[in-house]
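A student in our group prepared the protein record below, which I am reviewing. This is what I was given:
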Amino acid sequence: MKDPRFDIIDVRAGIEEENERYAREVRSYCRTHGLFLINLMGSPGAGKTTLLVRIIDALKAEYRVGVIEADVDADVDARTAADRGALAVQLHTGGSCHMDAAMTLRGLEALEKDAPEVVILENVGNLVCPAEFDVGADLKLMILSVPEGDDKPLKYPLMFTVSECLLINKTDTAPVFDFDFTRLEKNVQALNETAPIFPVSGKTGEGFDAFILWLKERIHEGHRTE
């Protein structure tokens, strides 16, 4: 029963409503400008930037690739993306642990003059906050590295639930770590039956071709529906 002496305001609900409004704007922007937006998520050290470079290299002959780098500070990753020939913009989140849709829209607008066809948002590194905020992406792509352990779906279920594709990176380190691929797949599929899982090595490139074939098909489908 509500206490008549004070009001209760659900601040979280207001934040989510505003973010969803901006997410709709992002989707509309992407359709209007004919671009495919990828939200790349994962922990610090999972290998997001290493795999980002491989994705840029695999796509840049066919598409104009843009990158939005989200970091609390610094511009190291944006420089790395630009060095590989991508159109890059660095966003400083000012301490925020995630990107939201309004920030994403600003990043897209900063790239507009270069007319990218595929934009990859490298989200802030963690497995909690990025999963909670829809940025309006066409694809939510998650990276989990072998050294992080196969128990992460049990600890961070929302991230694995919302992700539409999972890359298991650093498979070349599997002999060193106690990582059970079968157990991981079982735990992921209990949360998300449709997300494909690609074991890859950012260092050696092993398994990457199969993922790129799948990704290009998703991009083609996205462009056909615009």
